[in-house]
Sequence to fold (151 residues):
Amino acid sequence: MLRSEINDALKQALRDKDQQALGTVRLIMAALKDRDIAARGAGNADGIAEDEILEMLQKMVKQRREAIDLYAKGGRSDLVDKEQAEIAVIERFLPQQMDEAETEQAVDGMIAELEAGSIKDMGRVMGALKERYAGRMDFGRASALAKRKLA
Fold:
């Protein structure tokens, strides 16, 4: 489903002559193709799964946010604008992100469900969160919350 949305977005950007969207969607497709090739090498002929595509898109957004910080410190507002436009295009394919309260509630629920009691359970908690909330949760924020609650 997500693959077809990305292909449709490419076609729409071509029709609209939207160079910013076209460039960003092509970047997404190139990253997806790279991961599909790697997955085929590991024996998965169909390429990567939907949740892995969502994870890839989240990483792309994270990379751009980090670049924005660096460009802002360097006084390059033109590059900041470019990265923000790319984030807007990428986020079209991501589901609605959980807010702070929802993230905290999900972390609390997972800790209770897994009966996690110490920092040693951090890996299990984060693994379960990534499995259940792929593409919807900021796992950096969730990790910090889980660490604080388990410590």
Remarks:
- The mean pLDDT is 90.
- The domain at 100-150 is CATH 1.10.10.410 (Arc Repressor Mutant, subunit A).
- The CA atoms of residues 31 and 126 lie 25 Å apart.
- The chain has seven helices and no strands.
